[in-house]
Amino acid sequence: MTLLETLLGLVDERTVLEASAFAVGTSLSAILYFIHRRYDSKAKVVEDVPIFDINSDFTTLVKEAPFSTLPYVAINGKVSTLTAPLHSQANPSTVGVFLKKTTTEHKDVWGKYTHVWQNEDREVTAISDSIPFDLQGLSSHPLVRVVDPMQSAWFEECAEVVNEEFVPSHTSTVESIVGFVSGERLKGYTQTEKMLRLGTKLCAIGEVVYEDNMLKIKPPASNFGEYILSKFRKGEIVSQMRSKSKIWKLLAVLMGAASLTALYFIMRRLHGKYVIAQDERRLAEELEEVRNQRTVQSGQLNRDDARNTNQGPCVVCLTNPRECVILNCGHICICVDCLEALPTPKECPLCRSRVVRTVPLFHA
Ligand SMILES: [Zn+2]
Ligand SMILES: [Zn+2]
């Protein structure tokens, strides 16, 4: 039996299963690490982006740039608009450029498995409205028009809650009973108004151009970076992105560690099996040797007289003489035939310790 055959003999269903789990774990870890690297490089891009205040110097800078374009820059400014602003429905004096009204339904639902009433919230409607708006610096001129704000995944976070109202549902006794039986009780609705108010300080990161006699900031060409509109300052945006990236890295490291631990246990188990297989091989050779010794000794020892020897016959067949020493326990209790017939991994019939080796017994 070659070494390769021995190794292949060790591979069983469990090993295949464990190896697959290891492969999946390793790939997952690699994917998580890849996501981490992407977030990290995004954060790096934002960190390196030049930042400008909105003033006449900035206008000159953009006008004189090639194609009157700065491909990826950050600007700080206050939200303003040249058209009539949007009014909050609940507080008409609150004005802004983006308004989102959501209605959330609150229900008590009977848990089929938990057997308790559980609160369940569900957004049932969402309506939003927006008007063109600009960012301005300290003075009312120049303005930078914000183009396609909804293209920025960060935009809705800029809006703040300006009104929140809970409207309880009025249910009759009959409806209450029906609700109790059906396992669903409506508690009411929350109406929320979120608004990007005039005067909110924003940081906008994107492509700035001078066209149609005005400054505009718009989604950048995709190879430059993300279009960001945020209430946070640039430094805070970077640290938010970094902490996201760190979570992915942590997940990647944990997954990698789990895979390596699994690999360690697979290897340890296979090594154990390998050692046993080697022992079995040597044992077979040694048994052969003992058998040869038996032929040599047969003249001196009458096998039928085995019962009369001091040590008695083999403890398994109770017929043949005890012919070999079991190692490592050292018991002399068995004949070659019975030792050979023991199921693998072979165990000493007296003490159950594993038969690692055997040596022939010589009668003086
Ligand atoms: Zn025997
Ligand atoms: Zn023993």
From TrEMBL:
* Species name: Phallusia mammillata
- The Enzyme Commission number assigned here is 2.3.2.27
Q: Which reaction does it catalyse?
A: S-ubiquitinyl-[E2 ubiquitin-conjugating enzyme]-L-cysteine + [acceptor protein]-L-lysine = [E2 ubiquitin-conjugating enzyme]-L-cysteine + N(6)-ubiquitinyl-[acceptor protein]-L-lysine
Compartments, as annotated in UniProt: Mitochondrion outer membrane
Q: Where is the RING-type domain?
A: 314-352
Give the membrane topology, semicolon-separated if more than one.
Multi-pass membrane protein
What InterPro entries does this protein's entry cite?
MDM2_MDM4_MUL1 (IPR051652), MUL1-like (IPR022170), Znf_RING (IPR001841), Znf_RING/FYVE/PHD (IPR013083)
Keyword Zinc-finger applies = yes
Protein name in the entry: RING-type E3 ubiquitin transferase
Q: Name one GO biological process term.
A: protein ubiquitination
Top-level EC class, please? transferase
GO MF entry, a single one: ubiquitin protein ligase activity
Which key words tag this protein in UniProt?
Ligase, Membrane, Metal-binding, Mitochondrion, Mitochondrion outer membrane, Transferase, Transmembrane, Transmembrane helix, Ubl conjugation pathway, Zinc, Zinc-finger
Please give an example of a GO cellular component term from this record: mitochondrial outer membrane
Name the gene behind this protein: Mul1
Signal peptide start-end: none
Query: What SMART domains does UniProt report for this protein, alphabetically?
Result: RING (SM00184)
Annotated transmembrane regions: 16-35, 247-267
Asked if Phosphoprotein is a keyword of the record, the answer is no
